[in-house]
Amino acid sequence: MTDAAEMRHPFLSAALTFMESYKGVYSHGMMVELSRRYPKIDKQLHGLWKGGKISTMDPAKLKTDDIKEYVIFLRTRGLRDTSIAHDICAISNVCKYTGENNCVDMARVHYPLLFMSHRHVRLPVMERPVFDKFFTIADSLTSDAGYMMIRAYAVTALTICAGLRTQEIQHAKMEFLDKDLQFIFLDHVKGKNTYGTARTVPIRPECVPIMRLYLSIRDQNVNSIYIFANRQGKFLSDDKLRQDKDKVCVDLDFHFDFRMCRRTYAQYLVDEGFPIDRVSVVLGHSNTRTTELAYARPRDDRVVRQIVDSWSKTNKIGGKK
User: Fold this and answer.
1) How far apart are CA 318 and CA 286, in angstroms?
2) What residue spans define the domains of the chain?
3) Cα separation of 229 and 223, whole Å?
4) Which of 1, 19, 217, 278 is the most buried (most CB within 10 A)?
5) What is the CA radius of gyration of the chain?
6) 263 by DSSP, 3-state: which?
7) One-character DSSP codes across 149-191
8) Helix (H, G, I), strand (E, B) or coil at 26
9) Higher-scoring residue by pLDDT: 304, 56
10) In angstroms, how far is the first alpha carbon of the chain from the final one?
C-alpha cells in the first residue's frame, strides 16, 4: 500500500502487516480466508467511521464502544453468530498485534449480551455404515486402481484414522511415520511457533491396508519428504487435497469434508471409552472444552445404556437385591 492509502486505511494496512508476520504459522487456507476477510472488515469500518459511528479506523486506537458499534452493525445485517465471532476475532488479532489493544476483550466484558451466541450444535460425524463402506472399498483396491485413486483413499484414510487437520496431513513426513503404521509424529501443527505444540498421534488399525498399498507404489511416483506430495515433491495444495477427497465422495455417494473426518476420529475414541482428556491431547487441543464443544462427547444412547447395564449388574432394577 502507498503512504496515502495507509493513511486512508490504517486498519487494512495493519492487517496486511499482521498477515505477513504470520506467514508459515497460519495455513495457506487460513491466509486465503484472511485475505478476503480483512478488506471486507476495513470497508465496513470505513463506512462506520464516515458515518460517525466509530471514533477511528486505527486498530491501535479502537475503543470498546467502537467494537460495540461494529457488533451492532453486524447484527442488524443478520449475520450468524459464527460469522460475527470470526470477524471480531480477526479484529482482535490485529488490535493486539498493532498496539496491544485489548478493546475487543473489554467490549466482551462491558457488553456481554451483544456477544451471546446461540446454543452450539455439534456437527455430524461419519457414521459406521459410511465408515465401513469406505474401508470396504479401500481394502478392495489393488495397484491396478492407479496411483491417483490409491492416494485419494490413503489421504482420506489417514485423515479419518489420525484426526489430522488439513495442514497436518499436508506436512506429514515420511520420517515420522511409524514403520508399523501405529502412530505418526506431527512436527507441523496448527499454531506452530505460537500456541501449537508438536505431538504424536495414534493411527487406527483400519488405515493400515490402504496405507501399505499406497506406500508400496509411492516411491515410483514421487520423491519427497512428505507422505503425500505432488510430482515436484512439494506437499499437496488445499485444492489437490480437496480433489482427492471429492473422488472418494463420489464412490461413497456421500459428501464429507476433512473436518468431519477429524470429528469422526474424536467421536469414535470417546465411543470406545477413552477419557475426553486423552482424546483432547491427541487432537492437539489445549483444553477439553474445545474437544467437548465441537468434536466429541458421550452419545446419549450410550450413556443411558451404560447406566442401565450398571444397575442391572448390581441387581438394583425392579427392587432386586
Assistant:
1) 44
2) 3-115, 128-301
3) 8
4) 19
5) 24
6) helix
7) HHHHHHHHHHHHHHT--HHHHHH-BGGGB-TTSSEEEESS-TT
8) strand
9) 56
10) 80
Using an 8 Å Cβ cutoff, are 117 and 85 in contact? yes
Amino acid at 155: V
Answer yes or no: are the C-beta atoms of 219 and 233 closer than 8 Å.
no
238: cell is 488445499
Contact 162, 184 (CB under 8 A): yes
Q: Any bridge partners for residue 200, and if so which?
A: 185
pLDDT score for 66: 96
* CA proximity to 90, closest of 35, 34, 40: 34
Looking at residue 321, its pLDDT comes to 47
Residue listed under C-alpha cell 506467514: 23
Is the model more confident about 283 or about 3?
283
User: What is the enclosing helix (H) or strand (E) of 201?
Assistant: strand 199-202
- Report DSSP state, residue 295: I
Closest listed residue to residue 170, CA positions, set 154, 195, 152, 188: 188
Please state the CATH superfamily assignment of the domain spanning residues 128-301 in this structure.
Intergrase catalytic core (1.10.443.10)
Q: Which three cell numbers stand for residue 252?
A: 461413497
Helix (H, G, I), strand (E, B) or coil at 192: coil
Alpha helices in the chain (DSSP H): 3-8, 10-21, 28-50, 64-76, 81-99, 103-110, 128-140, 147-162, 166-171, 208-218, 238-252, 258-271, 276-283, 288-290, 300-313
CB 55 within 8 A of CB 44: no
H/E element holding 200?
A: strand 199-202
CA triplet 246, 252, 255: central angle to 5 degrees? 50
Per-residue pLDDT tens digits for 129-177: 999 999 999 999 999 999 999 999 999 999 999 999 999 999 999 999 9
User: Which residue has 458515518 as its cell numbers?
Assistant: 51
pLDDT tens per residue, range 191-250? 655 556 899 999 999 999 999 999 999 999 999 999 999 999 999 999 999 999 999 999
Average pLDDT along the chain: 89
